[in-house]
Amino acid sequence: MVSQAAEIMGERVVDWSDFPKELWSPIGKSLDTGIDVLRFRSVCSSWRSSIPPSHPNSPRFPFQFPHPYDAFPTHLCQSTIYCIQPLDSSSTSTAATSSHIKGYLIKVQESASGKLRLLEPLASYPIRSYPRNTKTLNLLNFRIVEITKAYTLRFGSFGRAVVEDERRYRHRSVPGVNKVVMFPNSTWTNAEGCAIFVIFLDGKLGFAKYGEDKLTFVDDHRSDYDDIIVYKGQFYVVDRLGVVFWIECSSLKLVQFSPPLCGLGSRKHLVESCGALYVVDEYLYKERGRMEGNRSYFNRRRELHNTIDFKVYKLDEEWGQWVLVKSLGDRAFILGSDCTFSVSAQEFVGCKRNRIYFMELEESRAFNLEDHCIADLAFSPDPPSWLCATNLHELILTT
């Protein structure tokens, strides 16, 4: 059928096995994500042998990371958010089954043993709605696309001996940390070129290269940074006034990229959506304080405040000004505890348009930008029927 259609259109169909061998390696090495490389290498033994699984010196997670205040072993952990869909989703178009063919967001984190844990998409703790049985997820049965990566700092030696004093902190997220980002980080990245930035709850900005044993504070006189992301291959950070800075990694110089937002909100979030940069200004019922960075902060808990409103601004880079956004259209913004991103609501199960999803008191909530109402809405709903046969609490990806 495909050959007949191709002949009618004057096209020639070439079997994948006849593809020129000299192109296999360049195509394979143009794939940035591990999941794409894995699928490429699973096609056949020839394709598998054409490229290695990754760069020989690519980052291996979790890896030890310097902590500025305490001597407990701290490690940087990586999790990845994927969109998973059935392979035959395009063949079903009826309204009755439309919810079954939408994508489903999953967030997985690789442990030192190589197993992948399923986490809450908005948080960094194990998802609650799945049993704890171990199953296998065969990638050949699904279409999987990487959405973004997220990073957290955790205590623990991950398999090595630990001292008695740190047992109660083992594998727990490091308190006092607001956000961690790392770049570059692809399958072909040499770990020696990776840079990591950390924003602490006291508003300070720290920096370290992969493998370094000391954290350097960027502009130690300032402590008013709220969020940081990688945008168009560069690090961008926003302060409490809504001023966005571009970070020059070699000199750690901050270059002002935007004018002040002058928003009256208490906390600023950076989000990239459809290639544009946004600031989400979060309004809290009570003005938040700042946590001082010192050794006693182990006994402190992050202050909890009720969110009462959000305002969204888009940066007009041509005119150098912020534009108030009244509607996100079909988009939904996700303000996770360790990353921010946006998705098309119509493409995902349980996701609604013109919403901002965020965490509060360890519960997911949804803010409607149209009527400014906040609802307790599960961002990670029960899996669709095509995924129910697979128990995903702890999984191993196979091909």
TrEMBL record:
It holds the Pfam family Beta-prop_KIB1-4. Residues 80-363 form the KIB1-4 beta-propeller domain. One of its GO terms (biological process) is protein ubiquitination. InterPro entries: KIB1-4_b-propeller, SCF_F-box_domain. This is F-box protein At1g65770. It comes from Juglans regia.
